[in-house]
Specification:
Blueprint (H helix, E strand, L loop, with lengths): L2 H17 L3 E5 L17 E6 L14 H4 L2 E4 L7 H14 L8 E7 L6 E8 L4 H5 L5
Parallel strand pairs: 1-2, 1-4, 2-3
Antiparallel strand pairs: 4-5
Length: 138
């Protein structure tokens, strides 16, 4: 994992710890590999988001995020903005029971065409129903 992605992911875990978030949802498609040298906090669930059928993992690497993840959510293979990734990821995580209703979640996402992770978003599913329903946007 390159330096910028490592920095963004460390920041996402730090924000999740400080805000009491239940999970960190990581958009795995922008990553060149899933080896993360830092610790994954035990109180936070890591959930990976991807459009790929299978995420390539580091063979035998103990710092592989795929081995530490609670689950993998497959996103639809259509063009998605960063906010769409967050909305769909939240909805699918709730429907697959990877998140409880009312959970606080921190997202680390990147652009739809690859590139580095470049956005950290904190979502409280009990207060931000417009993320899921689309209400209150206009």
């Amino acid at each position: 994992m390159d330096e910028q992605n490592t920095l963004i992911l460390k920041a996402a875990f730090s924000i999740a710890s400080k805000t009491g978030a239940n999970a960190v949802l990581l958009h795995a498609d922008p990553l060149d590999d899933t080896c993360f040298p830092g610790p994954v906090p035990r109180k936070q669930n890591l959930i990976l988001l991807t459009k790929k059928k299978k995420i390539e993992s580091g063979e035998g690497a103990k710092d592989d995020l795929l081995k530490r993840a609670r689950g993998v959510i497959t996103l639809p293979r259509i063009a998605l903005t960063r906010i769409a990734i967050i909305k769909i990821g939240t909805t699918l995580a709730l429907s697959q029971e990877l998140l409880e209703p009312g959970a606080k979640v921190v997202f680390a996402v990147g652009g739809p065409e690859g590139g580095p992770l470049d956005l950290i978003q904190s979502v409280d599913t009990s207060k931000e129903s417009e993320i899921i329903t689309g209400r209150g946007i206009m």
